[in-house]
């Protein structure tokens, strides 16, 4: 007789056989989504569980990454929907304490990074790139005049639409950088010197220092959000220096 905890459906094994995230390397590859029908480990038999800690760890990483990705996407969408003729205060929506649930997600990323620092950092960089690549897909035509100074409900002319697209793209870029800085800060906060040995630490330092060196002072003077992001980069540099 088949035991209560076992199953003869081999397709269930696919639910805990994610593409190894180690294969990401330095490539910007998407993380495959789990099947929508999958619910939990409850009821899985010994055959599936015998894949060991590695598979469970990969599953945990993917689930947490998807939680981060989805929550971050909702926050960015909320910011994009704000009036386009006024620069939103990103800190009001994204800083520590603005959303305790999102804060916990970042904290969990940091804790998981203790075991897999390279994977978590790579996934955050993947998220940042794919978020920016998807900017052109945002349906500006559907926003109507809600984001324009005159409050018109009619579709804006082409020139105004082009300007709106530029504003949305910049806003999405800044919001994603703000989130990336917060996420990397949460990760580095949990790491020790041994976690950033070799090329991983070098690449992270190069990324952060490069952003600080390349900043345009004129952009900082005219944008409060850019100044806030530079402060986040400076904090991140301090955290990296403490353990390198």
From TrEMBL:
<dbReference type="GO" id="GO:0000902">
    <property type="term" value="P:cell morphogenesis"/>
</dbReference>
<dbReference type="InterPro" id="IPR039867">
    <property type="entry name" value="Furry/Tao3/Mor2"/>
</dbReference>
<dbReference type="InterPro" id="IPR025614">
    <property type="entry name" value="Cell_morpho_N"/>
</dbReference>
<dbReference type="Pfam" id="PF14222">
    <property type="entry name" value="MOR2-PAG1_N"/>
</dbReference>
<protein>
    <submittedName>
        <fullName>Cell morphogenesis protein PAG1</fullName>
    </submittedName>
</protein>
<dbReference type="GO" id="GO:0005938">
    <property type="term" value="C:cell cortex"/>
</dbReference>
<feature type="domain" description="Cell morphogenesis protein N-terminal">
    <location>
        <begin position="170"/>
        <end position="244"/>
    </location>
</feature>
<dbReference type="GO" id="GO:0030427">
    <property type="term" value="C:site of polarized growth"/>
</dbReference>
<feature type="region of interest" description="Disordered">
    <location>
        <begin position="1"/>
        <end position="24"/>
    </location>
</feature>
């Amino acid at each position: 007789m088949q035991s209560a905890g076992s199953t003869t459906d081999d397709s269930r094994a696919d639910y805990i056989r994610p593409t190894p995230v180690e294969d990401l390397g330095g490539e910007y590859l998407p993380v495959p989504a789990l099947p929508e029908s999958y619910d939990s480990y409850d009821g899985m038999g010994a055959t599936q569980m015998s894949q060991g800690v590695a598979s469970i760890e990969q599953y945990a990483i993917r689930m947490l990454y998807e939680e981060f990705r989805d929550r971050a996407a909702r926050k960015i969408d909320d910011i994009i929907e704000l009036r386009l003729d006024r620069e939103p205060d990103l800190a009001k929506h994204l800083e520590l304490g603005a959303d305790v649930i999102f804060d916990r997600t970042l904290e969990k990323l940091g804790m998981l990074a203790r075991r897999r620092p390279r994977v978590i950092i790579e996934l955050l960089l993947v998220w940042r790139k794919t978020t920016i690549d998807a900017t052109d897909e945002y349906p500006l035509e559907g926003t109507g005049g809600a984001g324009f100074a005159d409050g018109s409900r009619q579709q804006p002319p082409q020139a105004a639409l082009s300007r709106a697209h530029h504003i949305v793209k910049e806003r999405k870029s800044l919001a994603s950088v703000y989130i990336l800085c917060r996420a990397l800060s949460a990760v580095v906060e949990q790491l020790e010197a041994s976690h950033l040995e070799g090329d991983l630490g070098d690449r992270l330092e190069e990324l952060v220092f490069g952003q600080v060196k390349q900043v345009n002072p004129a952009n900082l003077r005219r944008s409060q959000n850019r100044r806030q992001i530079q402060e986040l980069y400076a904090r991140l540099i301090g955290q990296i220096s403490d353990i390198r």
